[in-house]
Amino acid sequence: MEHDDSKGALKEFTPSSGLAVSIDDPVQNPGLPPHRERLTDVDPKAAKRAERTIYTLFYISVAASIWAVAAYMLFPIEDQEMTSIRQNNLFIGLGIAFALLAIGIGAIHWSKTLMSDKEHVEERHTTRGSEETRAAVVEAFRTADEESGFGRRKMIRNSLFAAVIASVLPGITLFRGLAPHDAENSPVDLLKQTMWKKGEHLTRDPSGTRIKASDVTLGSAFHVIPESLLEMGHDDGMLNEKAKAMVLMVRMPPEQLTERGERKDWSYDGIVAYSKVCTHVGCPVALYEQQTHHLLCPCHQSQFDVSDEAKVVFGPASRPLPQLPITVDAEGYLIAQSDFHEPVGPSFWEIR
What are the start-end ranges of the H helices in 150-237? Predict the structure, then answer.
């Protein structure tokens, strides 16, 4: 540290540079770099071309959204044709992808070519501003609208509105596929009736081998389907019927079962059978934990207690798994006493 008598200022010697820097001199504001005008700022024709490009992209987005809706109708998935399902997914996905991509590219091109690109400095305020400050904010929004051209460039603004509104339509259309809308094909009625009926043999999935009660050991779990399902072909809706009728059967000590009076004869010597269709969103419940007697749905981790009428003990499922009443025939083979007494599958199907 040394004192400069000629100027009356303190100077500090920095070994790295070997220079004496004045402590009293403030750091100079370097300012902003020179602003470089864009082509669209100086050439009205270029600005017009950019505007046409932007609203063309937005209208392409509208067309892509409309195509996604049309693809849903042109390639229906209700006929269960694998080709139609693949085309449905492909063309709807492409339509939605192009709709959103065109909006994104158009918005970026708009900001890069036509919106104001001048640098601005805004002071930060730690407290609520005064009325003058709030009025200044309103003025800032007005200025931003003017500089972006949002209110002035009607073609861009209107095409953007149309693109955003149209981009929602494919999503709304896809809700149509959640369930039939006609009264004859009510989801509740469709899921309340399965192929199980009185005397229907329980068979292994997928071999179709009948199951004797003596073959079911303590702690074992069997994936079960109705015997008559094997007589159906794929064209007869076999997969749909299997999806409703699939069952998981386990055996545990009878004294560990908690059963209400009306359900005491629904099991046989500790053997119980429950629908494999999760009551949350319909995933197959296929993981059995022998020590806790819990069934686990791998999709969203709902857990059901087999020892207590498959009640929900964890996860988002809202009701127990439906139980299939079972018994044995004269030869000791396991058979169903009836169909399920309630709809299988997700609970939202029961909302009319």
Answer: 154-174, 187-192
Q: Quick check: pTM over 0.70?
A: no
pLDDT tens string for the chain (352 positions)? Answer: 444 554 444 455 444 445 554 555 567 777 777 878 889 888 999 999 999 999 999 999 999 999 999 998 888 776 656 677 788 889 999 999 999 999 999 999 999 998 887 776 666 656 666 788 888 888 888 887 777 777 777 888 888 888 989 888 888 887 776 655 555 666 666 777 899 999 999 999 988 999 999 999 998 899 999 999 988 876 677 888 898 999 999 999 999 999 988 888 999 999 999 999 999 988 999 889 988 999 999 999 999 999 999 999 999 998 999 999 999 999 999 999 999 998 898 876 554 4
What is 187-350's CATH topology? Rieske Iron-sulfur Protein (2.102.10)
Interacting residues of 299 by C-beta distance below 8 A, sequence separation 6+: 278, 280, 281, 283
Q: What dihedral angle (degrees, nearest 10) is formed by the CA atoms of 257, 260, 261, 266?
A: -60
CB-CB contact of 203 with 209 (8 Å): yes
d(CA 226, CA 234): 16
Asked if the bond preceding 33 is cis, omega within 30° of 0, the reply is no
Report d(CA 157, CA 150) in Å as an integer. 6
Q: Cβ contacts of residue 68 below 8 Å, gap of 6+?
A: 91, 92, 94, 95, 96, 99, 169, 170, 173
Domain regions of the chain by residue span = 39-119+129-178, 187-350
